[in-house]
Amino acid sequence: LPLRAPIIMTDIYTAEMIKYASNAFLATKISFINEIAQICERLGADVKEVAVGMGYDKRIGRAFLDAGLGYGGSCFPKDVRALAHMADEAGLHPQLLHAVMEINQDQRRLVVDKLVSILGSLRNTTIGILGLAFKANTDDMREAPSLDIIRWITGQGALVRAYDPVARETARQAMEREGIRLDLVTFCSSAYEVAEQADAIIIVTDWNEFKSLDMVQIRNLMRRPVLIDGRNIYEPREMVSLGFTYRGIGRGTGPAATVLPASDSTTPPPARERTLIGESDEHR
Fold first, then answer.
1. Is 213 found in the same domain as 166?
2. Positions marked catalytic
3. Co-location of 119 and 242 in the same domain
């Protein structure tokens, strides 16, 4: 069957580099928006609206600009490490690639830091984990953020109640390989079971199932209504109005931005706006 795609004829080294460079670039976009998210938190901006605005620039695009817990899986972590290693071996100093990996790891620690800032000590607490696989619609646990998060919070004395729609068994096996104490982890059959007497819940994977939960019921089942939204699937104001102590990733405190339809008007923009557009165009 025809590939129905462009075909590039090149040498084996260049072909390999195309693959590594492509995945490293996408990983860089993820780490970039996660670093922007941290700045947004300090300045009161909303990273979801920032990503929407950036995405309208055709030079950037909207894909891979979702702030959260970083990348995982089998390709991005391996390929970024491999490319950085090859650069190191060649006597180069791949600063950007190392920064991408550091930011990705920092994102996983960030949710634990948010948890500690609210609860104080995690000793003798029960923390719910919603989502175990590295992304939705798979049971893949390779480089899954949930593994680091569970290791860190159990290491601080917390018990974990975890639920994933499909990754329960692969998660159990991955935790055994990682040396995580399974006696501190209870695998639940639903998000509502996770919430029972939990001191906090962390959203780790953005399964569609989690976007349609009865959050009032979730709140009522919890001992303390603390919600750490590692995938920004909920709206902060709505969660706060329901009684949650809510923390997202880079969600601001300002009014929600409104995306206006494109205008057909020929009226020129105000002078300052024209200046900003001109300044931007100089750097294309």
1. yes
2. 75
3. yes
pLDDT digits (tens, 9 = 90+) for 38-86: 999 999 999 999 999 999 999 999 999 999 999 999 899 999 999 999 9
Both 127 and 211 in one domain: the answer is yes
| Predicted model pTM | 0.85
**Rounded Cα–Cα distance for residues 211 and 233 (Å):** 6
CATH number, residue 153: 3.40.50.720
Neighbours of 200 (CB within 10 A): 26
Per residue in 8-21, is it b (16+ CB within 10 Å) or e — as a string? Answer: eeeeeeeeeeeebe
What distance in Å separates the CA atoms of residue 194 and residue 161, rounded to the nearest whole number?
Answer: 5
- Same domain? For 100 and 112 the reply is no
Q: Beta strand 185-187 with 159-163: parallel, antiparallel or unpaired? A: parallel
Contact 194/129 with Cβ under 8 angstroms? Answer: yes
Structure tokens that stand for 146 in this block: 């949930």
Residue 41 lies in a domain: yes
Give the burial string for 75-106 (b: 16+ CB within 10 Å, else e): bbbebbebbbeebeeeeeebeebeebbebbee
Residue 228, strand partner residues: 202, 247
